[in-house]
Amino acid sequence: MELPFISLLPYGILFIISAFSLSYLINKHKHSRSSLNNLPPGNTGLPLIGESLEFLTTGQKGQPEKFILDRMAKFSSKVFKTSLFCEPTAVFCGAAGNKFLFSNENKLVTAWWPDSVNKIFPSSQRTSSQEESKKMRKLFPLFFKPESLQRYISVMDVIAQRHLASDWEGKQEVSVFPLAKTYTFWLACRLFLSMEDPEEVQKFAKPFNDLAAGIISIPIDLPWTPFNRGVKASNVVHKELLKIIKQRKIDLAENKASPTQDILSHMLTTADDDGQCIKEIDIADKILGLLVGGHDTASAAITFIVKYLAELPHVYNKLLEEQREIAKTKTPGELLNWEDIQRMRYSWNVACEVMRVAPPLQGAFREAMTEFNYAGFTIPKGWKLYWSANTTHKNPECFPEPENFDPSRFEGNGPAPYTFVPFGGGPRMCPGKEYARLEILVFLHNLVKKFRWEKLLPKERIIVDPMPIPSKGLPIRLHPHEAA
Description:
Elements: H1 13-31, H2 52-60, H3 64-74, E1 79-84, E2 87-92, H4 94-103, E3 109-111, H5 115-120, H6 129-144, H7 146-149, H8 153-167, E4 173-175, H9 176-193, H10 198-205, H11 208-214, H12 226-253, H13 263-268, H14 280-311, H15 313-328, H16 338-342, H17 345-357, E5 363-368, E6 372-374, E7 377-379, E8 384-388, H18 390-393, H19 433-450, E9 451-455, E10 462-464, E11 468-470, E12 475-480
Parallel strand pairs: 2-8
Antiparallel strand pairs: 1-2, 3-5, 4-12, 5-8, 6-7, 9-12, 10-11
C-alpha cells in the first residue's frame, strides 16, 4: 500500500541543517563517482536542504502542483532533478514516467521511505521491500478483492446510517472533515478488527493524528516534534493492537472467533510459503498501516466530494437522482448490496473527478536499485525517484481543460492508462482501492438521501499536508430533505 506522503513541518533552518547534514555528505560522496555528466536538467537548490522548503510550502499554500508543473515547464516535461530532504531526486513526469516506475518495481526501482517510517513501523526495518511486497500481495488481495468485500457492504451501510444518525441528524451545522474521519475510522476498526463500540473506537482513534503526522517527518527526537509524538503514539497503538491480537488468537483457538470474520483473523490464520505464520509484531504493523491508510485518504476524498457537491448544484442533483432511483428499489430497512453499488456509475465518476482535482495521494518515492537511463538521461544508483499525481491530473495533455470539474471524463473507457493515479500503480497500487470505492459510495448514498448543504466559508483555504484538507474542516449548513 502506498503510504500518504506526509510533509515535513518546518522547525527552522538550523534544525533542518542539523538533521540532514550527515545524510547530505554521505550521499554527496556516494554519488560523486556516478555518471554525473548526463543527469536530468534541474536545480538542486540550497546546500543541504535543497528545494525541500519550496516543495513543502507550495502544498501548504494549497498549490502542490505548482512545484512540479513549474519545473516541468522550465526544465523537462519528462524528468527533472531536484534535491528533496537532502536526497538527490529525479522527478518522473507524465503518463510515461508513471508507467516506467510502476512497471519496473523490484526490477530497476524499489520503494523508499525516510527513517521516520522505520521507527513507526518497526517491521519495515527487518524485511526488504521486495519480500514485503510479495507477502502483502498474497495477504491483502484475498481480503480486498471485490468478491470478498461484497459481504461487507451491508455492514458499511449500517455504520454509515449509525454515523449520520449520531453525528449529523438534528444538527444545523457540522464540520465535514473530522466527521468523515470518524466514519472511515469506525468502518476500518469494524472490518479490520471487528471493533464495534463507538466509544471504544473513539478512544482507539485518539493517538492516530499524532501517529500520522510523524510517519514522514524530520527525525528529531525532541518532545515537541511531530517525530517524537508520532513514535510515542505508535508505541501506544502497537501495545493496544498486540493485546487485541493475543486475545484474538485465544478466541480462534476456542472457536469464539471465525478465521474469516476480518483481516486480523485472516492474517493470523494465513501461513507463508514456508508454512510459518506472521509474527504478532508484524501483524500489528500491518494492521496499523491499514488503519492509517484505510481512513486518512478516504476521509479526504469524502470531504472534497461534499465540497464540490456544495459548489456544483447540477452535479449534486444528478447524483441525487441516481441515488434516489436506487433507494426506490429497496424495501423499508433493506440494506445496500453489490448490485446497488454497481448502479452508482455517475456517483463514482464524480468521486473519481474529485480525486483527479484533489488527489488524496499526492505522490510517492522510489529508489534506483541500479544506474539506468531514462528519456536520454542517466539516473544514478541510489537516487530517490518521485512520481506525482499532478503531472497527469493537472496536465491538459492528459485531461483537457483540467481546471474544469467534469465527471464525464470517466465515462466509457475513461482516461488513458497511467494518467489517473489516485491509488498509485503497478505492484504497489493500493490494495484497498475497491474498499475505498465501497466506503465512499455507501456514505454518499446515505448522505444525499438525507441532506442538501451549503458551505459556510465560501473561500475556505485548502492546504495540502500531505493530503488536501480544508483549513477549517469544511463547515457546512445542513438542509434535510422533506419527507415524501
